Inverse folding.
């Protein structure tokens, strides 16, 4: 049965991650696990995130592209995994100054179910940089309403600019007072 095999792999993989092995050794084990289970999404996504956090964008891109290929082929994937995958790809495209691809993936992350809405700050910031102020403000409003605690300093700055440009000074002041 495919699903029991998949659950078995997932359980085995989770045990590996929770084994308490030092991080460097664990990354090597995850890489080995990934090579042995080439159709296993979780290891590719984890390795991509690890490389991204270490600013190894090219290596992250390889793992995340493999993960995306699995998702596109119909491999089972949660909305949270999709949101993380697409926001990570968006971040890499931003680092490569490919703003259109960054927007594409940020939008996909944002539209990846309820968990994806958390990436509205990323998506809204990209829209702002593309001069799409009205769209950006809508995304910031929706995201801030749901996740005010998750706003970062750059997003606050952009959100304030958007509010000030459209003469929403009261809301702009409230944003300053809250954060």
């Amino acid at each position: 049965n495919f699903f029991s095999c998949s659950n078995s792999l997932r359980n085995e993989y989770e045990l590996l991650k929770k084994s308490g092995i030092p991080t460097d050794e664990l990354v090597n084990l995850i890489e080995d696990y990934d090579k042995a289970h080439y159709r296993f999404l979780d290891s590719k996504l984890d390795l991509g995130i690890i490389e991204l956090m270490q600013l190894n964008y090219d290596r992250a891109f390889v793992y995340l592209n493999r993960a995306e290929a699995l998702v596109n082929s119909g491999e089972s994937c949660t909305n949270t995994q999709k949101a993380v995958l697409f926001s990570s790809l968006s971040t890499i495209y931003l680092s490569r100054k490919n703003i259109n691809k960054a927007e594409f993936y940020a939008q996909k992350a944002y539209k990846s179910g309820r968990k994806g809405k958390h990436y509205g700050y990323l998506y809204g910031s990209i829209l702002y940089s593309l001069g799409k102020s009205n769209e950006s403000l809508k995304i910031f409003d929706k995201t801030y309403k749901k996740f005010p605690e998750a706003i970062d300093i750059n997003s606050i700055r952009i959100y304030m600019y958007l509010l000030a440009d459209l003469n929403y000074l009261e809301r702009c002041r409230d944003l300053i007072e809250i954060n």
